[in-house]
Recover the amino acids of this structure.
């Protein structure tokens, strides 16, 4: 007979071994939180589903009718831009026989057509066409009500150029989730900095990395500057560790900042800065993990967002998108500077791969059970573990 506790044990074990509020007493999450497939699925359904998770970029959906399939922790989802210009997200599954509706990014036109029997849905998810449902050439049947068989929509919102979903449908509004971060950055970069963000859709505007680790290790590594001198010697030469500071921003974000961002660095014409950002603050750069799966970086002349797409307990796809301060920042004259930023950040993030993958391998060891935190350098990581522990317990 199956032990009824067996389905909940991994999550309890991992939380039991973690995460005292007092940093000096705390240990990190147990290995199961990074290695167990069962834990990963439960985390999806009971943690990530209950908050706002990032699944794509608004610029993935350039025009109405554009549809992009997304596999989010094995849930097939579909991002669509509707005729009002709004990004919508649906479960990517046909209501007839459960076929995956869209398998690659496409322009749908007026209807999203299922590849199996060609049922068609409009961009609001309404079922509009059921060819041959009543036999060859008979497209309607009595008693079949199309309005009952539309696509199932997932609650979604766009902000900071990112498409977020709340799978449970009952999280507080996205604005509440982001409030402490946006308040902080509006004070730094100007009240309308979010409205200024313009994605660079050229080849130097994005990058993608696949890393063999649990997505939480990518969050944790992004939280801290501690590893800078050893993992990023180049970055540390112009933005040294002693110029960095810890950030804990509200309940759902933490990371680090620097006082030595250098706007003059790089070749080619300088980029425009966000309009409300001036004085000494121009040397500030801030890097926040917005829980659960979004990494953000803000400097006076550029912003980036990294979406962590968990593909398996030990596999994560990282998608980075650069944004600049308005359309004028994307002209030919700034191309060299943007290319240089792309190159510099590509190096930094590729340097992180070996350490997040090394931590994943370490979590195969019975000789490790959560580890300890530096009382000075690991505050932001501890904050993330506390958030996770509270979410598991809830
Ligand atoms: S499964 Fe989609 S039309 Fe039949
Ligand atoms: Fe790093």
């Amino acid at each position: 007979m199956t032990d009824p506790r067996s389905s909940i044990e991994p999550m309890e074990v991992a939380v039991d071994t973690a995460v005292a509020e007092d940093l000096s007493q705390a240990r990190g999450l147990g290995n199961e939180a990074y290695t167990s497939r069962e834990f990963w699925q439960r985390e999806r359904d009971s943690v990530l589903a209950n908050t706002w998770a990032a699944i794509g970029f608004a610029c993935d959906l350039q025009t109405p009718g554009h549809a992009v399939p997304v596999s989010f922790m094995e849930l097939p989802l579909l991002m669509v831009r509707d005729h009002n210009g709004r990004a919508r997200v649906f479960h990517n599954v046909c209501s007839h026989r459960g076929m995956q509706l869209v398998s690659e990014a496409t322009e749908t036109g007026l209807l999203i057509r299922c590849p199996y029997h060609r049922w068609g849905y409009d961009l609001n998810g309404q079922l509009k066409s059921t060819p041959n449902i009543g036999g060859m050439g008979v497209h309607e049947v009595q008693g079949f009500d199309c309005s009952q068989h539309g696509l199932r929509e997932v609650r979604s919102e766009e902000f900071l150029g990112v498409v977020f979903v709340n799978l449970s449908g009952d999280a507080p509004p996205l604005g509440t989730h982001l409030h402490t971060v946006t308040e902080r950055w509006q004070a730094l970069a100007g009240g309308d900095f979010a409205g200024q963000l313009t994605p660079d859709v050229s080849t130097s505007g994005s990058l993608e990395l696949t890393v063999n680790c649990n997505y939480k290790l990518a969050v944790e590594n992004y939280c801290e500057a501690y590893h800078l001198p050893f993992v990023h010697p180049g970055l540390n030469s112009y933005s040294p560790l002693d110029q960095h500071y810890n950030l804990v921003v509200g309940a759902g974000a933490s990371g680090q900042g620097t006082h030595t961002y250098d706007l003059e660095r790089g070749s080619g014409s300088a980029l425009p800065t966000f309009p409300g950002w001036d004085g000494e603050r121009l040397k500030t750069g801030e890097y926040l993990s917005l829980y659960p799966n979004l990494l953000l970086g803000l400097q006076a002349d550029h912003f980036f967002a990294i979406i962590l797409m968990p593909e398996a307990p030990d596999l994560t796809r990282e998608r980075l998108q650069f944004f600049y301060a308005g359309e004028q920042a994307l002209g030919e004259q700034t191309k060299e500077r943007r290319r240089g930023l792309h190159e510099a950040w590509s190096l930094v993030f590729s340097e992180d791969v070996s350490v997040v993958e090394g931590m994943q391998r370490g979590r195969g060891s019975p000789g490790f059970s959560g580890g300890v935190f530096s009382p000075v350098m690991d505050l932001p990581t501890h904050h993330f573990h506390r958030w996770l522990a509270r979410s598991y317990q809830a």
Summary: The domain at 53-157 is CATH 2.102.10.10 (Rieske Iron-sulfur Protein). DSSP finds ten helices and 18 strands in the chain. The pocket of fe (ii) ion (ligand 2) is lined by residues 221, 227, 231-232, 352 (CB under 6 Å).
